[in-house]
Amino acid sequence: MSKPFWEKPLTALSPKEWEALCDGCGKCCLNKLEDEDTGQVVTTRVACRLLDGETCQCSQYDIRHQFVPECIVLTPKTIADHMYWLPRTCAYKLRAQGAPLYDWHPLISGSAQTVHDAGVSVQGWTVPENEVHEDEWEDHIIDPE
Questions:
Q1: Which of 16, 28, 107, 111 is least enclosed by beta carbons within 10 angstroms?
Q2: Mean pLDDT to the nearest integer, 122-133
Q3: What mean pLDDT do residues 39-54 have?
Q4: Distance between the two ends of the chain, CA-based, in angstroms?
């Protein structure tokens, strides 16, 4: 019996499988602040203006770079460069580290709702970036885990 696709090495995933690996938590769409001296990255509850705070999905995913050119595209080739700012629960990070997915992951549970039910998503507690001046983002630092 073959392994489920999400247990394969990331480089063996098709583009469709790669996209399906996302757990839909929305944490990657939270703005981060990086200390220039230490390189430490902290997460804020200030969300990208394209994030739907209830569904935790990008409202313009397919054309997001037209609105947010700096949006980072994770791929099997670039994941290693971005793991330092991804939350510990991120499916891409977990699989890159050889760890299994959590039981609440939609691929395991069979439901996109379980990420929200488990309290792992950003559902209902973000602030859109167009409502907070960038100088005030420090006031919204959180522990995303």
A1: 16
A2: 95
A3: 94
A4: 35
Q: Which residues pair with 104 in a beta bridge?
A: none
What's the pLDDT tens digit per position in 56-115?
999 999 999 999 999 999 999 999 999 998 999 999 999 999 999 999 999 999 999 999
- Hey, which bits of the chain come out as E strands? 30-34, 41-47, 51-52, 57-58, 127-128, 141-142
Count other C-beta atoms under 10 Å from residue 108's C-beta.
16
Length of the chain as a residue count = 145
Collapse the DSSP code of 41 into the 3-class scheme (helix H, G, I; strand E, B; otherwise coil) and give the result. strand
Tokens read off for 20: 């399906």
Q: Which residues pair with 52 in a beta bridge?
A: 57
pTM to 2 decimal places: 0.90
Do 129 and 47 contact (CB within 8 A), yes or no?
yes
Q: Where are the domains of the chain?
A: 22-130
Amino acid identity at 73: V
DSSP 110: S
pLDDT level of residue 3 (50, 70, 90 thresholds): confident
Q: Quickly list DSSP for 88-126.
A: TT-HHHHHHTTPPPPTTSHHHHS-TTHHHHTT-S-TT--
